[in-house]
Amino acid sequence: MEINQVRYFLTLCRELNFTRAAELCHVSQPALTKAIKNLEEELGGELFRRERGNTHLTDLGRLVKPHFDQVFAATETARAEASSFRKVKKAPLRLGVMCTISPQMMVGFLKAVRERIPAVELVIQEHPGAALVECMMKGDVDVAIVGMPKLPPRFEAIPLYTERYGVAFAKGHRFEKMNAVPAKELADENYVERSLCEYQDHWDAMNLGWDVDVKVRFRSEREDWVQAMLAAGMGCAVIPEFMPRLADVALRLLVEPEVGRTISLVTVAGRRHTPATRALTDLARSYRWESL
Q: Structural domains in the chain?
């Protein structure tokens, strides 16, 4: 089914005259008649009945007309908004990013935004996961990139990529000789806790029935402080595998169990989105995150 067929159908509904409908649609009468016939074949029945020049809708025609009205109205709205979007020089968009997501995973996508939808002017806000969810619900950000085990029912999520958690430590640590670090090995180690990390939420969501009692020696909300303490040999920490690390910090994946997260772009269902929001969402859906 093509949108032109819908337009011809609705015009014919108004005019109830094939000749006048063809003129208004700027096509020949045979072309309009053929389009209507193709539509009838696709729908499995007559839409119009012609009796000695008296054209009127059939029962099937009356049944489908409200649906075609909605399709055509939505198409015209999309065209109008796209045209408006192309004409604006700047389209501000508030993008929330969970603070534990690596910027290195985002820069390629941000470059694609600049190149493919240059009218969008991104304002990036960083927040912990729970705070970012609250910002989304309040409407303080338009779209967000999060990696949480559970999201509110109203959120519509587009999965972007997945990453696992690993154990980070100073080079020369005993973990460096391992291919991976079993979770229970952390029990005997000094631990640097990343206060804003949602790793524990993912662990709890797995419902294992047990936990690792680590020796927390330091806590910090700042990733640069955590990395500095790790590099100085002051302990180890669980971090996402794609998080940038200082040169003196090594990483081994966490196993037994393996813990991971899915990074998603989320919007709030039922909320009217701007053309900029829709353009960014479409780009995120088509962008090749797996190539990272």
A: 3-87 (1.10.10.10), 91-156+267-291 (3.40.190.10), 162-261 (3.40.190.10)
